[in-house]
Specification:
Shape: globular
Bound molecules: nickel (II) ion
Helix content: 10-25%
CATH class: Alpha Beta
Strand order of the largest sheet: 1-2-3-6-7
Number of strands: 8
Order of helices and strands: HEEEEEEEHHHE
CATH architecture: Alpha-Beta Complex
Structural class: alpha+beta
Number of helices: 4
Largest sheet: 5 strands, antiparallel
Radius of gyration: 16 Å
Length: about 190
């Protein structure tokens, strides 16, 4: 296991579209890489991490959207770890859920977004097994946020142009320092 460096905006790899994992890439090496991503996510701490955030432009993500928290307010670790390779949304509900999102690659930035409340996701596991699963509520928010990363989309790109440019100016000035997953006690949103 290893903790990988998390890229933050404006790193150019975060803006690139990831490619599908090829058949010959499934196997133990891929599983090992995904467990390193999971360890990185828990350490940050975050509830989701997509491969482009660690500089790997392949379509895969890890998430643990368990809402239970320990007494100290931290999320329990590895309660419901999910590893998704080549995920695709095959159905989405019409009703939406509004949630405040943060991102490990966009430190100190929070914004409310509306996304479908339920999504049916088809994906492979690291050894190549095929799965189809409904995600509902918070897990649906997380999986959709992580899948945006696979398209090269981060949350500042979905925010207003003003809020985006203000944020990027702060990063440029060094007001926001490259520490991924910095604490933001004021926000109740989750870092995805
Ligand atoms: Ni993110």
């Amino acid at each position: 296991m290893a903790i990988l460096p998390i890229l933050t905006v404006p790193h150019p790899l975060l803006l690139q579209k990831a490619r599908p994992v090829r058949e010959d890439e499934f196997g133990p090496a891929l599983a090992k890489h995904l467990s390193d991503m999971a360890e990185t996510m828990y350490a940050a701490p975050g509830v989701g991490l997509a491969a482009p955030q660690v500089g790997d432009l392949r379509r895969m993500l890890v998430m643990d959207a368990t809402e239970d928290k320990d007494d100290d307010g931290k999320r329990e670790q590895a309660k419901n770890l999910q590893l998704l390779v080549n995920p695709e949304i095959v159905e989405r509900s019409r009703d939406k859920l509004r949630w405040e999102e943060g991102c490990l690659s966009v430190p100190e930035f929070w914004e409310y977004f509306e996304r479908p409340r339920r999504v049916l996701v088809r994906y492979r596991d690291p050894l190549g097994g095929r799965h189809e699963e409904w995600f509902e509520g918070f897990p649906a928010i997380v999986v959709q946020h992580e899948m945006d990363h696979l398209e090269g989309v981060v949350i500042i790109d979905k925010a207003s142009r003003l809020k985006r440019s203000r944020y990027l100016k702060k990063v440029k000035k060094g007001v926001i320092g490259g520490e991924a997953g910095s604490e933001d006690a004021d926000s109740e949103g989750a870092t995805l």
